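EI: anyone free to look at a 88-residue chain?
SC: sure, send it
EI:
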Amino acid sequence: QVFYVDSTRGQKKSEAFGRILLTTGLKPEQFLCIGNRLDLEIAQGKQLGFDTCLVQTGEHKELVPAAAEEHPDYKIASISEIMKICQL
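SC: here you go
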């Protein structure tokens, strides 16, 4: 399934993450939320109990966590590192 988040309508990624949990029936700790934004994918994934992986690329790569929930479980410089770093 594809879950689209329209931020121009005030939708949050955490809403989509919640729908994913409901539709799969899986537990939050069974997910790895991957993103390049501390304040979006990382913080909102953490709030639901997901493990998180920050891809340090793009315009947000220099940002530092501003809150406890913005600290990712893993950090990678390229998506190609995901399998090794996250031990998948």
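EI: The two ends are 22 Å apart (CA to CA).
SC: 👍
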